[in-house]
Every structure is written in structure tokens, then in C-alpha cells.
TrEMBL record:
The keyword Transmembrane helix applies. This is Uncharacterized protein. The chain crosses the membrane at residues 20-47. Keywords: Membrane, Transmembrane, Transmembrane helix. It comes from Larinioides sclopetarius.
């Protein structure tokens, strides 16, 4: 049991860190898209797509916990 417990702790840490990393990636992507497209129709479409992806990921993460 001593060797199993540290693995569970590190697994919980990665579960909490991973959504934050994805969230940062989405923000970086949105900022890059905003600079590149200057809020054109294409960028607006990507923002809608990324919002749908974040909602899907949050729901999936909440079900797994």
C-alpha cells in the first residue's frame, strides 16, 4: 500500500494540472488568432469552436472525478 499511495497522489496532481495546461493553450491560441486575424469572421468562428471544446472538456473532466 505504501508504493501505491504516492502513485495516486501524482496521478491526482496531473489530473488537476492538465485542465489548466489546456486552458492556457486555448488562451494562447485565442490571443494568437486575435493578433493574426484582428477579430475577423474566421477568428470569430475559431472562438466559437474553442468555447465548444472547453465546455466539452470541462464536462468530461467533471464526469471523470
Amino acid at each position: 500500500t505504501i508504493s501505491i499511495k504516492p502513485k495516486k497522489v501524482s496521478l491526482n496532481l496531473t489530473l488537476f494540472q492538465f485542465p489548466f495546461i489546456v486552458f492556457l493553450d486555448v488562451i494562447i491560441f485565442l490571443v494568437f488568432c486575435w493578433v493574426l486575424a484582428s477579430m475577423s469572421d474566421v477568428c470569430y468562428y475559431f472562438i466559437i469552436l474553442s468555447r465548444e471544446f472547453v465546455q466539452f472538456y470541462v464536462e468530461k473532466f467533471q464526469h471523470s472525478t
